[in-house]
Amino acid sequence: MAIIEGVSTAPSGETELAKVRRARKMYRILGETYPDAHCELDFKTPLQLLVATVLSAQTTDVAVNKVTPVLFAKYPNARAIAEADPAEMENIVHPLGFYRAKTRSVIGLGRALLEKFDGEVPRKLDQLVQLPGVGRKTANVVLGNAFGVPGITVDTHFGRLARRFGWTTSESPEVVEAEVGALFPRKDWSMLSHLLIWHGRRCCEAKKPQCWRCPLATVCPSYGIGPTEPPAKKK
Length: 235
Description:
By secondary structure, the protein is an all-alpha fold.
């Protein structure tokens, strides 16, 4: 095993078949650990999920979920969003930070949906990425969770864990998506995204991975980059 800047590569001499088997075993373990893993953004429609995902940049899902009920009540469809008064929307999304930029993105999104897709959220990746502020990550979130179309969501957690697990060495989200996708059946891609994101938020953190309590300790090539013993309890 090699450690590069705190990120492990795959075990030395591991064949592609062995990597596939190890990756799928890790997937099974994570599935047993987080049986309730799901998208943590609250939504009822594809449009709500699309807007919430755009708003989630540089903030937490918890923060977004506090803002969106008011936002969606005031702007229930693409037309209402497109015709929104920027100052009023800014006031609603202000707690999320970068509120001016996010307001511009959301209003632009509403206008593009009206102009290109009759106000409906498209169901194809190549159409979703035509929308302002929507990249492959956001598109895959919407496809997987609103439409049931399998996709891999490469956010910061997913990318970090995929590299620590030795599934890829790339920093490019598109390369990570392709290389990790090749290890799993397509039907598992969306759940795989949820599981890695949940594990990244709850255990395999960026600065202090909690190796001492990780369910993947026996199969993870990065085991040991974080503490392997539980922290001493304060008296």
